[in-house]
Amino acid sequence: MDTTTLLSPASTNQLITTTPVPITVTYGDGIGPEITEAVLRILRAAGAQLDVETIEIGEKVYLSGNTSGIPDSAWESLQRTKILLKGPITTPQGKGYKSLNVTMRKVLGLYANVRPCVTYAPFVATNQPNMDVVIVRENEEDLYGGIEHRQTDEVVQCLKLISRPGTEKIIRYAFEYARINGRKKVTCFTKDNIMKATDGMFHQIFREIGAEYPELEKEHMIIDIGTAKLAVQPSRFDVIVTLNLYGDIISDVAAEVSGSVGLAGSSNIGENFAMFEAIHGSAPDIAGKNIANPSGLLGGAVQMLLHIGQKDVAEKIQNAWLKTLEDGQHTADIFNEVHSRARLGTREFADAVIARLGQKPQTLPAAAFGNNQQQTISVELRTYPPAQKDLIGVDVFLHWPQRDANVLGEQIKSIKVGNMELTMITNRGVKVWPNGNPATFCTDHWRCRFKSADYKVSPFSDVMDIVRELHALGFDVIKTENLYLFDGEPGFTLGQGQ
Ligand code: NAD
Predict the structure, then answer these.
(1) Which end of the chain is more exposed for a tag (fewer CB within 10 A), N or C?
(2) Residue 285 alpha carbon to ligand 1 centre in Å
(3) CA of residue 346 to ligand 1 center, whole Å
(4) Single pTM value for the model
(5) Tens of pLDDT along 432-454?
(6) CA distance 463 to 418
(7) In the Cβ-directed half-sphere of 73, how many Cα atoms lie within 13 Å?
C-alpha cells in the first residue's frame, strides 16, 4: 500500500503517518474552477493526505447531450473513491435537464444534508452576532421526488412522498450528530398543522426517537414561525432537523444571516458515499473575475477532512481561515469599512489563508473539533410488523370542466357498489358537496370520495366497478387513491371543511 509520511500541524510538531485517501473532485461551472483551485491549494499546503481523481460533470456534459449532466466515467470514479468534493454546477435553463445535485443525492443515497451556519461577528458584518446553528435537512424525499403530472386543463400536481425509513434516518442522524458534537438542543420544523399525514409522521417520529435522547432538549416549531425566528433570533437554535424543501429554504436564510451566502459549506452524507460542497451556486454573474469567496467550498472541504479522519488538518485550515477573517483579509462579498483591511481576490484570499496555517484566531473561538466529529454516523432502522391494511373506499379524481359541484353530485350520487357510496366531493381539497359554500371557487379537478359510512371492508373489485360506472356515465377519470384503514386507523385525511 502506498503510504506517505508527513509532519503534522506546526502546533503539535508530532510525526504521524497517513495513507492518502482517494477522493473525487469536480471543479464545476461558473466560479467553480476558481474556488476549487483555491481550496485545493489550501488543502495541499495544509498537508491534507488526499489522492485526487478529477472528473467533469455539469454544464459541458449537459450541453453535449447528456441530460443528467453526469457521464459514466464520473460514476466509475465515485464507485472507487466514495467521496466527492464538488464545485457548484450550472443547471441549464429549460425542460429536459434534470438537476445533477438531486440526481447525485438520490443515486448515492446521500440522505443527510448537514449545513453549519455560523456568524463571525464583528469581523463579518451581520445583524445576528450569535448564530451557531447546524441545519440537518432530509435530502432524498419530499417534493424533490419530481413526480409531477398535468391532470386537467387547469391543474397540475406534485407528489409529496415521505417515508418512515427516510424520516427515521434523518431524525436519528440529527440526534446522533447533536450527541456526538456536544450540542444541547434539537428543533424539528414541520407544517403538520396543515399536512397532517406527511409532516405529521415526521413530527411523530421526531417525538419517538427524541425520547431515546433524554440529555438533549427537544422542541418542535411550525416552519413559518420557525423560519422567522431563525432570521431574527438565531441564537435560540442549536441543531434543526427538517424536511427537504423547508431545509433548502431555511439554510439559505441562515447563510444570508451569517453575512454571505459565500461563507457556508455543506456535507451530503449517505451510508456508503459522501459529497461536500458550498451551499451557493455557480454565480455566473461574477465568474472568471477572481472575486468569488472560496470560503463556502473550503468549509465543505473541512467537513470532508473530518469525515475521512484528518481532524488535525481540518482544525489547522479552519483556524487559519478564522485568523484570515480576523485580520480583515476579506473577499468583496464580506468587505466592510470597519473591519476589512484588504479587499482580496479569490487567489489572494487563498494565499492569505495559506500564510496563516499554524496560527489560531485571537477573538473568534478557535476550532477544536472533538475526536468524535466524524460524520460517519451509523443509523439503524427500527423494524415493525406490517399493519393490518383494510380497503374501505376510494377517492376518484375527475377532469370535469363545469364548475357546479351540485350538478356533479346529482349526476353521480346514485353510484353505489357494495359498501361504497358517494360521501363527499372536494375541489382543491375543499369540501364542495354536500352542502358546499357557493362562494368556493371550483376548478376542473374534482375528488369524489366513495366510502363505506361505517368503515366496512370492501374488495378491490368494488373500486374498479366504481371507476367503470363513472366512465360509463361519460366522466374522465384521471386517477384514484384507495382509502385504507391501517390497524383500524384511517390512512387518509378529511376534506377541508368536512
Ligand atoms: P448563486 O448562489 O450562484 O448566486 C447568488 C448570488 O450570490 C449571486 O449574486 C452571486 O454572485 C453571489 N455568490 C454566490 N456565491 C458566491 C461566492 N462564493 N462569493 C461571492 N458571491 C457569491 O445562485 P443562482 O444565481 O440562483 O444560481 C446560479 C446557478 O447555480 C444556477 O444554474 C443554479 O442552478 C446553480 N446552483 C447550483 C448549486 C450547486 O451546485 N450546489 C446550488 C445552487 C444553485
Answers:
(1) N
(2) 9
(3) 15
(4) 0.89
(5) 999 999 999 999 999 999 999 89
(6) 10
(7) 9
